[in-house]
Amino acid sequence: MRMTSAMLVGAAVLTLAGCGAGGDSGGAEKVPATATGSLESLAAEVRCRPDMQTDADEIRQALCKNADGKFVLATFATDRGQREWINDAKDYGGHYLVGRKWVAVGDDGVVNALRGTLGGDVEVGTDHSGHGAKHSG
After folding, report:
1. DSSP letter assigned to residue 54
2. Where is pLDDT greater, at 126 or 16?
3. What is d(CA 96, CA 111) in angstroms, rounded to the nearest whole number?
4. How far apart are CA 81 and CA 79, in angstroms?
5. In this structure, how many other beta carbons lie within 10 angstroms of the beta carbon of residue 24?
6. How far apart are CA 125 and CA 120, in angstroms?
7. Mean pLDDT of the chain
8. Alpha carbons 131 and 119: distance in angstroms, whole number
9. Residue 25: its pLDDT value, please?
10. With 50 as the cut, is the pLDDT of residue 23 above it?
């Protein structure tokens, strides 16, 4: 079965639902230059052993856990493939740390902690917290 980009995105974000850990990184610490490299080298920089979920030509995706918490780490063959993945993923909510041809997905505390090591830019997905709320009247 061929997994579509949307299926991979949904699985990644849903895997992280309720898996928050770690603390707030504080305020405006200095952000390092954005890291580059393979999924394994990025994982090593943040001290996690990647549990590979997808190993394809266009995307490599792994579940990771370190002292800051759980997150998904993905690398992409092309900038376009990365942007399409992120745009699809944002529909599922979440916090995204974005570098050149890589992304880390986790709760805001984890993403901010990872940013202190990997650099990158933070993007936030659609907030669905108000959906499905019970209305009492």
Report:
1. E
2. 126
3. 7
4. 5
5. 9
6. 16
7. 82
8. 32
9. 41
10. no
Q: To the nearest 10°, the Cα dihedral for 77, 17, 53, 5?
A: -40
Residues 6+ apart with CB under 8 A from 51: 62, 63, 64
d(C-alpha 103, C-alpha 7), whole Å:
17
Judge whether 75 and 102 are in contact, CB under 8 Å.
yes
Yes or no: say if 70 and 14 are a contact pair by the CB < 8 Å rule: no
- Burial track 106-123 (b if 16+ CB lie within 10 A, e otherwise): bbebbbbbbbebbbbeeb
134, two tokens: 């019970």
The token duo for 13 is 């974000």
Which tokens in the block code for residue 85?
A: 């993945």
- Contacts of 119-124 with C-beta under 8 Å, sequence gap 24+, read 119/31, 119/32, 119/33, 119/34, 119/35, 120/31, 120/34, 120/35, 121/34, 121/97, 122/95, 122/96, 122/97, 122/98, 123/86, 123/90, 123/95, 123/96, 123/98, 124/90, 124/94, 124/95, 124/96
Confidence of residue 126 (pLDDT cuts 50, 70, 90): confident
Q: What is the three-class DSSP state of 106?
A: strand
Cβ distance 62 to 43 under 8 Å? Answer: yes
